[in-house]
Structure to design on (485 residues):
């Protein structure tokens, strides 16, 4: 197949991209005379594209030659509207470093926090995620690095013109535009607050017309990037003996003790526990659901949305306690938003917005910050999960390290609730009758926030070891144990 590509005046166009639609790897470009040659099967479509021109599709049947005329696009990339500190402008007139973020691209990432999707998608943004715990798995991000020292280094965030501390509180489905201002010329209007860059977010508003209802449900499965593998009891004991022997020291574990570890004839004193498999799941599910409706008439318009996010934890729980409470590190959040626009006159618009979130985070009774340290500090033969008398060991018999199973499942639970309500009123008065482009904007906002927590801890019963636990320890030693009743 060969042909020529010209504009509406008949002038050849050089460098037009030509591909076979929906076929990977087949493509070519036009030469200096606008001509091309390409192999294509019958009843496939050729797609012609060029910057500044509308795309053209041609169905190839039995013909061997095709000539295409391309029309200049009416909407150029330079006519794209960009949101800046001074309002909306055409991209052609913007001289500062401004990036319009494709919100649809951010929605592709299965995360409950917007900040985790910025790195790699927004030019000039660096982000660091320091925790993977549900409810705490947010990313700290910087625009073109850190510009201030000894003070706040985070970007200045504005949502619908109001300052916000955290963009992760926003439901990503409610975002209409997401703009990042990077250099001094773009952020100068914000003064020192814009020293580290500015993020401008506008939320969705209703449009005149029939009621529009959108619903969306997503689910994803999360796994850890990497988890160390821990050796079993026999391997650990042999390695300890080997380390001792290389230092001309005596064995820690005698042959008969190694046999007890291998055969598990005395699991109270010579256990072999895979703590990682005991307390950690391979992964956990995340769920996101969103429902919004919008519409209105010529005088008033509305947008209402509600969403639900759930991130499940990766800790296993004690099935006997599940009916009473949950010790896993789960996180749930409910978001809601309502935006109403009312035309008071032909040149006056009143905008009322109400939004908020309710978050609940769950964790084991002693918290989950130290659980990983306890897991790494415990070896396979430190202690059994349960003693043969039904008690659960609290500490390692040789030191004060906490039993990971006890820490994650037997110490009760914590619930942290956070409720936020944000309301705003905006009045816009257009003065085009005086000077074209002159506008007055007045804003008022009121925010409220409250936090509360529930901490339920299980008490420990401390007793001296007895023969029932098969421990040969000094008479002054005391061990704390938690009954399973």
């Amino acid at each position: 197949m060969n042909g020529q590509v010209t504009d509406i005046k008949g002038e050849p166009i050089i460098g037009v991209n030509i591909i076979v639609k929906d076929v990977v790897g087949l493509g070519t470009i036009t030469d200096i005379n606008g001509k091309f040659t390409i192999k294509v099967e019958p009843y496939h479509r050729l797609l012609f594209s060029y910057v500044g021109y509308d795309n053209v599709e041609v169905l190839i049947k039995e013909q061997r030659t095709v000539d295409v005329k391309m029309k200049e696009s009416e909407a150029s990339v330079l006519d794209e509207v960009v949101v800046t500190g001074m309002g909306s402008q055409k991209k052609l007139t913007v001289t500062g470093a401004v990036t319009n973020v494709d919100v649809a691209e951010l929605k592709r990432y299965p995360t409950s926090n917007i900040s985790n999707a910025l790195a790699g998608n927004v030019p000039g943004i660096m982000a660091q995620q320091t925790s993977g715990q549900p409810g705490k798995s947010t990313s700290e991000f910087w625009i073109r690095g850190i510009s201030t020292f000894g003070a706040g280094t985070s970007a200045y965030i504005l949502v619908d013109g109001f300052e916000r501390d955290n963009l992760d509180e926003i439901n990503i489905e409610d975002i209409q535009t997401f703009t990042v201002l990077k250099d001094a010329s773009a952020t100068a209007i914000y003064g020192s607050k814009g020293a580290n860059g500015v993020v401008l977010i506008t939320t969705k508003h209703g449009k005149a017309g029939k009621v529009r209802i959108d619903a969306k449900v997503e689910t994803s499965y999360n796994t850890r990037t990497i988890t160390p593998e821990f050796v079993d009891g026999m391997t650990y004991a042999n390695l300890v003996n080997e380390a001792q022997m290389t230092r001309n020291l005596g064995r820690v574990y005698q042959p008969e003790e190694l046999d007890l570890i291998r055969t598990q004839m005395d699991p109270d004193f010579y256990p072999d526990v895979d703590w990682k498999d005991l307390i950690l799941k391979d992964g956990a599910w995340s769920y996101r659901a969103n429902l919004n409706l919008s519409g209105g008439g010529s005088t008033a318009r509305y947008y209402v949305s509600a969403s639900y996010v759930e991130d499940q934890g990766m800790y296993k729980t004690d099935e006997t306690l599940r009916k009473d409470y949950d010790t896993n590190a789960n996180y749930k959040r409910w978001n809601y938003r309502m935006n109403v626009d009312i035309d008071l006159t032909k040149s006056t618009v009143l905008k009322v917005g109400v939004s908020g979130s309710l978050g609940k985070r769950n964790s084991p009774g002693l918290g989950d910050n130290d659980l990983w340290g306890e897991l790494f500090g415990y070896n396979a033969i430190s202690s059994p999960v349960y003693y043969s008398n039904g008690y659960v060991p609290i500490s390692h018999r040789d030191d004060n390290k906490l039993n990971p199973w006890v820490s994650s499942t037997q110490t009760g639970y914590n619930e942290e609730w956070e409720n936020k309500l944000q309301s705003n009123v905006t009045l816009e008065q257009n003065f085009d009758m005086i000077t074209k482009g002159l506008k007055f904007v007045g804003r008022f906002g009121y925010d409220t926030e409250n936090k509360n927590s529930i901490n339920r801890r299980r008490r420990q019963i401390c007793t001296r070891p007895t023969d029932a636990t098969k421990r040969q320890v000094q008479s002054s030693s005391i061990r704390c144990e938690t009954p399973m009743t």
About this structure: The chain has four domains: 2-70, 77-203, 233-268, 277-469. The first strand starts at residue 2 and ends at 7. Residues 224 and 283 are 7 Å apart (CA to CA). Residues 2-70 form a domain with the Immunoglobulin-like fold (CATH 2.60.40.1120).
